[in-house]
Design goal:
Strand content: under 5%
Low-confidence stretches: none
Distance between the termini: 84 Å
Largest sheet: none
Order of helices and strands: HHHHHHHHHHHHHHH
Number of helices: 15
């Protein structure tokens, strides 16, 4: 097909939501795609829907059409296949719309958790560079006029500022390359995974990413179980979604416990996927036949906890970074102001 870029979570959610409305009204996928095609103005969107319509008109299943476009993730295609086999395609599409909307929210939370500290640190570096390249030379001229010179710590900073000015073009070029590499990494799937793995192991962000993985696991299990898959099949599919090495290992352990005769609620507790409280909620869900509802509730709890954790991190980081910046600026200024005051006193 002509379009190979994977759709974003928002685009998948929107497509699934519209398709769910069409299918729930009793309209066939072929007629549904014709309706969407007539209502879609975006060139890329029209191309994708046109490809799906063409494949469906050849007699292929809707899930096969989605797969052959090459723009939908395997998980979405597999879930639509399950929906077709169980006669719940409209319900699966609606559940997928909710799932990818939540995935987009998780992605936004992750960006917020990383972006804000980086911006603050960048501002701190700019202020410090301005001080040592612009402000300290002015103080140095004052010292020279008074028959003295800057010494000690402030002297070292002054020399550093001079080196920065002398090699400013080289430093700007290096910085531009670093920024470009960061942007390229942030735009590629492999780069995003590498970043997530690093942050997932970093002590300050590890618990945050553990929560994200647990919420994603609960959300994925809710979707697969509501589509008619058994717990073992659901675990297989969800293990491909979480993108968290630690959670994948826990899911493997959970499957081993189930093979050993444990029920699902005991297995997730033993594997360390959920707390004992959540495991009890799952056990009640199985007894009442509402395990997918319970999984959704657990997922919402983790989403709320993740959001609260982000706000807490930002609330702690903002004053902390401001204090650090204030101390650094104060230290630099005091290193020249105190000697200057001593000179002025001796002159007076």
């Amino acid at each position: 097909m002509s379009v190979k870029r994977k759709l974003s979570n928002t685009e998948i959610s929107s497509f699934c939501d519209q398709t769910a409305l069409i299918l729930s009204a009793g309209i066939t996928p072929v007629e549904g795609m014709r309706i969407l095609l007539s209502d879609t103005k975006d060139t890329q969107g029209r191309r994708i829907i046109s490809d799906i319509l063409e494949i469906c008109e050849q007699g292929e299943p809707f899930s096969k059409a989605l797969a052959r476009t090459g723009v939908f993730p395997d998980y979405a295609v597999n879930m639509v296949t399950v929906g077709e086999e169980s006669g719940k395609t409209d319900e699966v599409m609606r559940a997928l719309a909710e799932y990818y909307a939540k995935e987009e929210m998780i992605a936004d939370n992750l960006k917020s958790a990383v972006r804000y500290p980086l911006i603050m640190i960048g501002m701190m570096l700019i202020v410090i560079i301005v001080l040592i390249t612009k402000v300290l030379p002015i103080f140095n001229q004052v010292f020279i006029q008074l028959g003295s010179e800057i010494t000690g710590f402030s002297r070292s900073l002054l020399l550093l500022g001079g080196q920065i000015r002398n090699y400013s073009i080289v430093l700007i070029a290096i910085l531009a390359v670093i920024v470009l590499l960061v942007l390229l990494v942030a735009k590629t799937t492999r780069g995003k995974r590498l970043t997530h793995r690093i942050l997932a192991k970093f002590p300050l962000t590890r618990s945050f990413f553990d929560n994200v993985a647990a919420g994603r696991f609960a959300n994925g299990m809710a979707l697969t179980l509501s589509s008619g898959l058994d717990t073992y099949q659901s675990l297989d599919m969800v293990s491909e979604l979480v993108d968290h090495r630690g959670m994948v290992q826990k899911i493997t352990a959970c499957k081993s416990y189930i093979e050993g005769g444990d029920n699902f609620s005991d297995a997730v507790a033993k594997a360390g996927i959920f707390s004992n409280l959540h495991a009890k909620m799952i056990a009640v869900g199985f007894r009442t036949g509402n395990v997918d509802v319970v999984m959704n509730k657990i997922s919402e709890n983790y989403e709320k906890e993740t959001g609260d954790r982000i706000y807490t991190i930002i609330a702690i980081l903002e004053p902390t970074l401001v204090i650090i910046l204030s101390l650094i600026v104060g230290l630099i200024l005091l290193s020249v102001i105190l000697p200057l005051m001593g000179i002025m006193t001796s002159i007076g």
